[in-house]
Design goal:
- The chain is mainly α.
- The chain has one domain.
- It is built from two helices and no strands.
- The model has no long low-confidence stretch (mean pLDDT about 80).
């Protein structure tokens, strides 16, 4: 009987497919959960001033 001469390959196609799927899901979740980081600078400044005014009791 001839011994099998197989090469052990840890990173096969299915593992790379799973890793790329997880990475894609992570990126989509991060984009969805951080909408304020993509707002223009003037909107972030306006929102910050509005929050400061509410905090100080000017409202």
């Amino acid at each position: 009987m001839k011994p099998r001469n197989r090469e052990i390959n840890i990173f096969n196609i299915s593992m790379l497919d799973v890793i790329s799927g997880v990475l894609g899901a992570f990126l989509i979740i991060m984009i969805v959960l951080s909408p304020r980081s993509h707002a223009p600078a003037w909107k972030r400044i306006r929102d910050r001033k509005w929050e400061e005014a509410i905090y100080k009791g000017a409202w």
